[in-house]
Amino acid sequence: MSATYDDVRRSLADALRAAASTTGRSARVVNLYGPLGVGKTRLARAVCRDVADLAIRIVDGVDSDAAARSVAQTLGALLPDTVVLVVGRRPLASWPSWPSWPAVELVEIRLGLWLDADLRTLVLDAGADADADATAFAGGLPLVADLLSRRRRSGIGREGWGGVADEAAQQVVRRLRSEIGDAPPTGPQERTALDNADPALRDADPALRDVATLGSADADLLADLTAAACTCDRHGAPAPTSAFAPAPATSTAPAAHIFNFLSTLSIVEPGLLGLTVLEPYRTLLDVAHRWRAPRTAARTVALGTAYRRRQIAATEDPALRGLLATETLRLSANPHVRDILHPPGAAAFRVRPAMPDDEDVIVRLVAEWARVEGLDRRRAQRVLELWMTASAGSFHLLLDADERPLSLANLAPITPEAAPLTDRLLQQYADPVAVPAAGSSAGKAPGLLVGMLVTVDPRPAAEAAMFRHILAAGVARRRIIVSTAWPPYQHLSATLGLPRLGETRDDLLGCGRRNAVFDLDLTGARLDRWLRTMQRGAAARTDDPFTTAVRRALASVRSPAALAGSALLALPGLDTPQALSAFLRTTIEQLAAAESTPDAEAGRVLAAYYLRRNNGHDAIARQVHLSRATYFRRLEHGIRILTGLLSELVR
Question: What count of Cα atoms within 13 Å lies in the side-chain half-sphere of residue 240?
């Protein structure tokens, strides 16, 4: 479980007192380390006030190997009973220059990203509102929370968060200077001077923002971006300024040099597709980049999208193809799909196949799946037994940073051995999606059957991480088949461009609804066509019948008589046009008053367009002070919420 700020504060004070109470032949070192911007200096000063009776020597800003080497050399000259508090971004023992022998007594204390509760307390103490959107935007960084608090007290709302991200991003880049150079800083304000003659330093800032916007980048992709930037500069486009150095950021360093330089930074790590900026810094730098230089960011996205498509066409590795496809969607998908797959949020998750030891977790989450979707528990249990026998190893778990299971999905490969499962979940569609017998010329890809998904974490980013994993796994097997009775996931499947085959003959899970079956073939050129469809947004306009009924009811909400033929009148409690109209009006008004800014904006957009409707979309977007793109995202967000609430009545 992640430690709270107060937990770390107590642990650090205890470690300093313990170090001061022992005797030895060398100085004792307590090492406080943690990511950039989490308030290590603030904590060190606070704890030193807590233990003011002790003589503590503080060395702050030990963020490079040169700094660690300097500290190691200095310790030899200190008196044996000296207690030193060393503050930096990485553990002292991880630096190559730190002595490998036990020359000093070393205790390590880590301050990580702050928990949401701690951030809310920080923002409230600063006299600003601390809603869930604000803490999610801060991403565990008090650096961002502090800036956000000041801007909110100045009357700046969510529409100004791009500027807040830009200011925070500049601070992050400036603070990275302490990781460069040969001399260690002696305090948080005394940063190492830069060698401005090194072109890599001048190019590092825009390259870092490019990597954040792209999600990840290798040296070849950085070379393409560098060449494009030089071309734009020759045609008169202004060169971006760099927070690393005051010199113009015209790209002169080789891409490999920039790549190597970025790889040394504490907020960058290697990944399967090259370098990746760690969260929450990636989200912060990306938002700042798109806000400050939208044309430059758009160029980066276009070049990155073309590069990823070339990689997809060239690779023979199925897993890599799946990863490249999801990264292409990050860059090129229409805003509606991108919000589904990559919602704002800096939390880190990972997905792994379930292990035999996870059986209790699987049983618990399958029971939660049955409860949420209103399934008959005995039927859900029988399907679970079928998954366990006919398709062992098909469960996948989503875990958070503390290894807590947050989501469970069943992704069963379509194989002859899985026939009992496919027959059960697909019924009359089992034969059309079955894998042809050996030697057949039908040429169908084996595919993946998605039979269940449940997420117990309320954060959209958690569910989105599992969505991306499912898509990557399906692309790897060149085919995705979905069988679901849950209306929101039926709508999601249609939104993501999965063709609907139809409904099963029977109510398979005893929930009063028949499963809808979707089948997306991604063999050959179909994968590229699907990715381009997601870019155009055509699939986002493809609704399932339930959502279509919601849209039609909204269009007629001002005239109850026009609702007389609505399919929604079959829902419990909404059996008259007047009751349906009242439900829609009340729900929209409640949504407009929600604490969540996206929800409230969605409610206002729905009210303006459907309840009053005296203008078209463009005029209403201006009235509610939203860009056209944000307006349509909020409109679709509101319809999704209404669809989900109405689907609850089905149960």
Answer: 24
